[in-house]
Design goal:
Helix content is about 30%, strand content about 40%. The protein is an alpha+beta fold. The longest helix is centred in the C-terminal third of the chain and has 25 residues, at about 185-210. The N and C termini lie far apart (about 40 Å).
């Protein structure tokens, strides 16, 4: 199983490297400008419609996988929610995440909509692959949840719903509902590594909030 996951990991990174090279983005030493990332975000949104939650069609070569993870933070929900829902606070919690570029931030009804790109730098065979994750976040403070939908090469779509529950003793339970759509050959790898990444972020946010850093 471990050998298969390593093979899938190599395939995912190799595919990302090829696609990244073909689309001519910048290397880690020459980062793309904010307007370039905004244009990429719009193309991804228009092309892949990653905010939709329709499962891949049978025979499409793509599959869907889902999971949920929870953590309890020893802080009241009125502290946890604004800190946790601020994507900029996630910087430094994941070694690959290097910067977040916000393209639009506006309010629609009761929700705040934020269009952004998360720039990650992945080491691969002695070099660095720059991966841009284009996303939209919809924050609903009244209902204590937010949603984030994203698209990343090679055509990995992630749907997230993060729900906050006030517990007794001034604690907060955070539950993330995660859905991944990807090529069928990669879906197991995407699920395992996607969940692991979110668990690391949860642990980092817990530590930062409970310590008073956030």
């Amino acid at each position: 199983m471990k050998k298969r996951l390593r093979l899938l990991a190599a395939q995912l990174l190799a595919t990302a490297l090829v696609l990244t090279t073909l689309s001519a983005p910048a290397h880690a030493s020459t980062p793309e400008s904010d307007p370039q990332l905004a244009a990429e975000w719009q193309t991804a949104w228009d092309t892949y419609q990653f905010y939709k939650t329709t499962p891949p069609l049978p025979g499409s070569g793509r599959s869907r996988a889902q999971d949920s993870i929870s953590i309890t933070i020893d802080a009241p929900v009125n502290r946890v929610f604004p800190a946790y829902s601020n994507i900029n606070n996630h910087l430094g919690l994941h070694s690959f995440l290097k910067r977040v570029v916000t393209h639009k931030d506006r309010r629609q009804g009761s929700k705040r909509h934020i269009d952004f790109t998360a720039v990650e730098e992945l080491p691969y065979e002695g070099s660095t692959v720059v991966i841009n994750t284009h996303a939209q976040q919809r924050i609903n403070p009244a209902a204590l949840y937010y949603e984030t939908d994203s698209w990343t090469m090679p055509n990995v779509v992630t749907h997230q719903k993060i729900v906050f529950e006030a517990l007794s003793g001034g604690k907060t339970k955070v539950t993330e509902y995660l859905t991944f759509d990807a090529d069928s050959t990669l879906i197991d790898f995407v699920l395992q590594n996607g969940v692991a990444s979110h668990q690391a972020t949860q642990a980092g946010m817990k530590q930062a909030i409970e310590s008073g850093e956030l």
